[in-house]
Design brief:
Structural class: alpha+beta
Radius of gyration: 18 Å
Largest sheet: 2 strands, antiparallel
Strand order of the largest sheet: 1-2
Distance between the termini: 54 Å
Order of helices and strands: HEEHH
Shape: elongated
Strand content: 5-15%
Number of helices: 3
Number of strands: 2
């Protein structure tokens, strides 16, 4: 009985760990339009993490070119304007 409880506990811990890793890896984007080209973003397309305060948000892009432009800027929100889904700084 003790082995069964330990085994079940390990399965629960593994399931929670996997779901947490999957959610982080999936990186749900906060926006629907590319902040650079203002086009619809592609599902599973390029993305970058943006830190606002103590939280990190994932911003999606329509293409690698736009992601590169975004990543090259020191303050991309200032250059390209506000991003839907990101809180104001």
């Amino acid at each position: 009985m003790k082995k069964l409880v330990v085994t079940m506990s390990l399965l629960v811990v593994a399931a929670v760990a996997f779901s947490t890793v999957y959610a982080v890896a999936a990186g749900d984007v906060v926006n629907k339009k590319c902040p650079v080209a203002k086009k619809d973003i592609k599902a599973g397309g390029p993305s970058s993490d943006v830190k606002v305060g103590d939280k990190t948000y994932t911003v999606g892009f329509c293409c690698d070119n736009c992601k590169g432009k975004w990543d090259a800027e020191k303050d991309p929100v200032k250059k390209f304007g506000p991003v839907d889904g990101l809180p104001k700084k």
